[in-house]
Specification:
- Helices cover 25% and strands 17% of the residues.
- It is built from 6 helices and 8 strands.
Length: 266
């Protein structure tokens, strides 16, 4: 059974502004760097066999903190564009809005440089990705970075972004016919991690060989105890609508809870 730990990046310099920041490559903020170091220290005694990360600065630096604190021999460290956040096309770096106020239109707002959220999974900004596009990219990432190790005892860490992690988890859940499809893996805090154990489902349908049928068990969701007492961190900083959205909360916007819980015990 392979173990996969998904890690959301630390706070970036763009996270504190109401702007679209998918592929816009802002570094970690000062708080984000402290969060990443706290995360790295908390993983110092955890054996990780492989680290994959988005190549964007905020995720790469977060993964590097985990790698730096890992004992020798350190695991292979692989950046990839497949693990990037959703790409928001023409909206990148532009002002963000949760909805369209009554009496105006999306087109009128965009002329003012304000780009409201698209809620449909197949909708996207010009030049960008929809959530369906991100789901398909997540399938590619798992096929390359996780599925080859299903028959091992490896522990794989994947540092990515809130929306991307929610889609990666969605892919995995859909491949387990007995998983609870109603569970949410969204609203992630900065540097929070979610852990899942995966193995092939014996006698399961393998989708004509394209993807494996899985048996999954989720042990931790949105776990961020390493942030307790961190100077400069308050939960309120992760409770705004925009931070909930970029934490992967793509439906109704709610506050994210830090929790540890079993989900799909087999």
């Amino acid at each position: 059974m392979v173990t996969v730990t998904f890690i959301r990046h630390g706070q970036s310099e763009d996270n504190v502004h109401d702007i679209w920041a998918g592929w816009k490559d802002a570094p970690l903020s000062a708080l984000g760097r402290r969060q990443a170091q706290a995360l790295g220290r908390s993983f110092a005694s955890t054996t990780i066999t492989r680290i994959y990360t988005s190549d964007l600065l905020r995720a790469h630096a977060t993964a590097k903190a985990v790698h730096d604190h890992h004992a020798e021999p350190k695991p292979p460290f692989t950046p990839s564009e497949l693990l990037r956040e959703q790409h928001f096309g023409v909206a990148e770096g532009k002002e963000w809005a949760i909805d369209i106020p009554e009496g105006t239109t999306r087109e009128e707002l965009q002329k003012k440089g304000i780009y409201p959220v698209y809620w449909g999974r197949d909708e996207k900004f010009d030049g960008g990705e929809s959530l369906d596009d991100l789901f398909r990219r997540s399938e590619e990432a798992l096929k390359e970075f996780v599925f080859p190790y299903l028959d091992t005892d490896d522990h794989i860490a994947i540092a990515s972004h809130g929306l991307c992690i929610s889609e990666l988890m969605s892919v995995l859940v859909k491949l387990d016919p007995k998983a609870d499809q109603s569970e949410s893996y969204r609203g992630l805090l900065n540097t929070a991690w979610t852990r899942v154990q995966l193995k092939r489902r014996v006698g399961g349908d393998s989708n004509n060989g394209a993807q494996p049928s899985l048996e999954i068990s989720v042990s931790h969701v949105n776990h961020a105890s390493h942030l307790a007492g961190l100077d400069g961190f308050t939960k309120d900083e992760d409770e705004s609508k925009i931070r909930a959205f970029f934490g992967g909360e793509t439906g109704s916007i709610t506050n994210a809870d830090t929790e540890v819980r079993p989900v799909c015990d087999k």
